[in-house]
Amino acid sequence: MEEVIWIEVLSRHREVLARHRCRGPVVTIGRGYSNDVVVDDPHVAPAHLLIARDESGALVAEDLGTTNGLFVERRRERLQRVRLDGDKLIHIGGTTLRIREGGQPVAPERPFHRNTRSWIAAGIMGTAIIAIDVLWIWLGETNEPKVTGYISPLFGFIMMTLVWIAGWSILTRIFAGEARFERNVVVALAGLLIYSLYNEVADFAAFSFASRTIASFQGMLLWVLLAAVSFAHLRIIGRTRLKLKAAAVTALALAVIGVQALGESEARQTFGQSDALNRLLPPALRMAPVRDWNSFATDIEVTRRRLDEDRKTEPSGPGGFFGAFFGVSDD
Amino acid sequence: MTMWLLRSSLCGAIAALCAVFGQASAQPVPDAPQAISSAAERIYVGARPRLMQIRTLVAAAGRQSSLGSGFLVSDDGLALTNYHVVSQYALEPGNYRLEYTMADGGKGDLTLLAIDIANDLAVVRLDRRGDAHFDFDARALSGGLAKGERLYSMGNPLNLGFTIIEGTYNGRVENSYVERVLFSGAINPGMSGGPTVTADGMVAGVNVSKRTDGELVSFLVPAHFAASLLERAQGASPPSPGSLRAEIARQLIEWQAGLYKTVAETGFRTSSFGPYQASESAAPWFTCWAQTNAGQVPKPRAASNTTVCNSDTRLFISGDLYTGTIQVQHTHYRSVNLNAFQFATFITQNNRPYWFGGWRPKWYTRQRCNEDFVALTPSDSHPPLRVAWCARAYREFEGLYDVWVVAVTQDRSDEALVSRLSMQSVTHENAMALATRFLETLQWKK
User: Fold this and answer.
1) How far does B145 lie from chain A, in Å, by closest CA?
2) What is the pTM of this model?
3) pLDDT tens for residues A117-137?
4) Is the minimum CB–CB distance between A268 and chain B shorter than 8 Å?
């Protein structure tokens, strides 16, 4: 039987640039035209590499005495002789090669994946997001409704989402070889849906329970959500090194939350708090019990004591991230 | 010439002091009068050696930072002026000093002896004595001047030179918490602290302020306040410059105690706002204004009707600190075609931002708030409320705060009353007492 040896020239991203079908048992590779496979790489010798079989019958690559030598992927030392297994990548000069035999096993046929379910999910979520946002806009409408009042924010929202999805798809394409577009769409929309619901629900909760704590954690939790979505996107790219990915997004989210919290606390330190009666909602949404005036007055007494302490501390100047938002006015 | 307009504001503006930009000082008046041609001329001749200009100088630069007038009231060198003429020195004695210039050009240093911030008066001591001085008019002290009586106001307006101005006495300003004489004459910046005298040359009042939204509407501090402060100053030893801030704080606390006592004693009148009732002070020195959005085009989707009442108790502490005002505001909102959420948003939008104004670390601490659902008892006459209480403390004046309280009724989804009470420089106890009363009167109409 005729012996076939495939010489594959790979790109930096390990895609096959050229595939040469050679007849065994010996194949020579180099820049010279006497070779079986000619490689146009100035760092490759005219006669660089010899592919042959050793005593046990396995394919080996052998350096023909070159300046730049023979290397194997992920190993630093120069080799004279390399035993090949069909998956090992070898480097000569700036060129990456993979040598395979005719009997190289390949993955079974993969059926076409229609992803209908992903698209249905994406459609439902997309519709839900738009419906929810339109609803919130409508509930906050106090003037005559205008079409652009609804379309403009939605348009911006949709554009941002598309950019986000496209970004992740491109990253997936680069690192995983395929865009996995529909899965990225589902993850992004799921995140957006949670955001749309959460933001309003948090506002409702802040009013219903008369709680400023909820309001102040609102911003932080949004970053947590963003980190979770980013992690899901990274998981689509590849399921390897998930712990590292989780650690990276967590660190990033914590850093952002930290900076934000610091900025807000500095601003509050300097300017005090301005967010009383931040957002009123229908009285029917009240969940907290109504307090009697005397118990509220004890809270006020606590505030008064804090103010007396503030009186003793020196005022700090403007500045910091939020400093620019407050004019220094003295009248 | 717009400088003093900046220093003043629409209501009860203080005729401000700094008004001079590189002008020569007063020209000496030629001596040796021939025949006296008018009463004013005669009065001025007598008054001239008793008048002075009072300058506040930046200590480091030795240059003037504000100008006012003053007049001698005793033969041991005591003179009267306005508190606001010497306020920079009173608040920051390390950065400023006081100087006088007599009409004859004599100059010297002033010592601040006593202040009265409620009546805007101060007593200073000259570094010389034995000059002629003014005396108080007995009828003015007892309030016996007649409306229409001619008065003569003196001072150094805009640093143009000592001036005498004719005007008429028009009695006490009506509907005013602070006792002031209405003087129909032209008082200008720089004349603050100068005397206004009767035809006999006896002091009837001290120039203090004017309205900038009218003509010749000027105000004098009645003579009896000046006389009693002078009496206090004569008996006491001069305060150390560093203790003046504490004195201002003490007077502010005393003043607000009187004010809030009067407010409580005068009582309140109730007004109806849709199904709600709320109260306003019955004191005549609250000026109330109403506002409606009914005429808005396009037609508003919720009706709002506002009543704002401001007390005319604004007090000068410093060029950048006026305080002492009480404001009561009630706004009734009724939805025309907004749903419950939209209506709540409408109220939110119309009640923001709840700030006291700019960021002023020189005078105030940061602002702190409390917010909750509150109900007053009995609950069958009081609607449930969403109440926010915000306060900031005065750094320099211990025990005093600016406080605002807002209550939003929480019983209906298409109608609400938003009531707001703002109190400046008030003790916690007085703020609490007035706020409690304010919220107690907020009721459902039976």
Assistant:
1) 39
2) 0.81
3) 889 999 999 999 999 999 999
4) yes
